[in-house]
Amino acid sequence: MITYPGSQDDRDALWALAALDAEAVAVWHDDGELPDLDAVVIPGGFSYGDYLRCGAIARFSPATASVCEFADAGGLVLGICNGFQVLCEAGLLPGALLRNESLRFVCRDVPLTVEREDLAFTTRCTAGQRLMLPVKHGDGRYLPPQDLDPAQVVLRYLDNPNGSVENIAGVCNEAGNVMGLMPHPEHAVDPLLGSDDGALLLASLVDAARDRVLAAY
Amino acid sequence: MLVRPKPGILDPQGEAVGSALGHLGFEVRDARVGKVIDLEVEATDEAAAKAEVEQMCERLLANPLIESYEVEIVG
User: Fold this and answer.
1) What is the model's pLDDT at position A213?
2) Cβ-Cβ contacts under 8 Å, A143 against chain B
3) Which of A40, A107, A204, B71 could cross-link A124 (Cys pair, CB 3.0–4.6 Å)?
4) Contact in structure between A70 and A3 (CB atoms under 8 Å)
């Protein structure tokens, strides 16, 4: 889990991953060398104050360069909210995230549908399943590139909170090892938090990371 | 340098500004909001300065998917 100056959901992400029996560690953005990892989560927040464009500066952190190498080698990378913006700016995911159509910061639970059940991030879900996850962002309007393969859409909003094109809430890269989403699974891992649907996504990632480790033995 | 939302990209900020101008009684057909970035660089000549700033735009200052840019050399 990468922490940038301005990340704010890093501790929640660590807590959620630990609750799902992952051994989660925080990596400071200035550390160019990643520890021995099986998956990377880039959390939400306002890295570098969202200066210039959301995620634009974080892309140049030493840790981000290492994450790009990790992803290019097939490593599993999940970007949540600001982490999604960072992955788009870094070119690991297609498209861009722009100011919400309403110009308002949205902070509420939104229903979503799962489009892909075969990814490392969604094995605990079924295609067409409805998830309830919180969003909280001012810049979440996803604009895909014109040539986006529809198979790269992982999640869609059932109640579009930000004007995202084709209700896209989460996408993956062509290889399927990098995913970004605007909703926050790490804030929805226990019924006490209003929903535990986020645990399905994060636990899928933990499963996949663990399977890869076991397969390597 | 001047960074603008590309044509066809929805610019809600521009729409809000246009609507506010309408409330003031100005007739505005379209409003788009971009940003100006002033840079001071040392270069042997204008062409070299422009080429360098254009690289900065491509790599950081603008996102080519959603923004266009123009470089103007002053001084």
Assistant:
1) 87
2) 9, 65-66
3) A204
4) no
Q: Which chain B residues are within 8 Å of A61, Cβ to Cβ?
A: none
Instruction: Answer whether residue B40 shows pLDDT above 90.
Output: yes
Digit-coded pLDDT (tens) for A16-41: 999 999 999 999 999 888 899 999 99
Q: What is the pLDDT of residues A62-100, one digit of tens each?
A: 999 999 999 999 999 999 999 999 999 999 999 999 999
**A 90-109 residues inside an 8 A Cβ radius of B:** 95-96, 98-103
Query: What is the phi/psi pair of residue A104, to 5°?
Result: -100, 145
pLDDT above 80: residue B75: no
pTM: 0.92
Q: b/e string for B28-50 if b means 16 or more Cβ within 10 A?
A: eeebeebeeeeeeeeeeeeeebb
Q: Is A29 noted as a catalytic residue in this protein?
A: no
Locate the chain A residue with the closest alpha carbon to B10.
Answer: A101
A139 near B CB under 8 A: no
Beta carbons of A102 and B12 less than 8 Å apart: yes
**ipTM of the modeled complex:** 0.81
In DSSP terms, which residues pair with A153 in a beta bridge? A171
Active-site residue flag, A69 = no
Which of B6, B17, B60, B69 to substitute to test the interface with A, most A CBs within 10 Å?
A: B60
